[in-house]
Fold:
Amino acid sequence: DASREDPPVVAQTVEAAQDVDDDDPPNTPLPRVVYPPRVSEVIEAVERAVRKIAGAAVHAFGSSVNGFGESSSDIDLVLEASKSALQEALNLGKVSRRDLAPRTLSKLHRHLERAGFYVQERVLGAKVPILKLRLGDTDCDLSCNNLLPVFNTRLLKAYSDAHPRCVELVHRFKNFAKDHRCHGAAYGHLSSYSLTLMVIFYMQVRGAVPCFQRLPPGRGPEIYREGGKAYDVAMDLDAQAPNPSAIVSFPDFAKFFTDEFVWGQNV
Structure:
């Protein structure tokens, strides 16, 4: 889950992030992500709950839509809405940027219940405040204006689509880690997200997949602003793998990180 465990890969150059003001130029539009039917159904239910918020939109991100998750993966959702629209629709009154998300989610609690959701937990004091919800047999987390992970999801979807073995290797690695009890950030181990990045890096070194996180030819940075910071979220989704016929396998993946990878030099 990119929203809670790790910084988005699409914003790795965090040192280049700049403080920005509210009157800076408009943001780069959010990328389009195609949702599976089960995700679309949950989004529609949230949209019914927030229909009175002018201009509101609901997006999904994370493993349920990036191609690396299971069919039963929890769904990460984010409500996108302007501060003024939230203040007016939810009667928030004067609220700081820091308190906007937790206040919004707190007010949405009863609206979501009316739309058929069961609110399992309110995690409003976290760095990224969320409501943990359930709709039928589907668990989902809802945040507010936490939109940077949507770019990350589009980037990871490009990798899951780039090579037929990419998703297979990620699933095999995750199962290996679970079997050996060395999986899960909550237990002091690497998260599923981190394991996914390890597989992508291995496949990039072997030349089986390209690097999509780069400036497209002839284009400049694409700036997205969130939380008072500016990030370059440019992706070259037309990039080609240098050696698409490269043989990649789980034994070779293990050999790479055992014998070839040099910590501090390769990262």
User: Anything to note?
Assistant: Residues 1-9, 11-17, 19-23 have pLDDT under 50 and may be disordered. The CA atoms of residues 5 and 186 lie 9 Å apart.
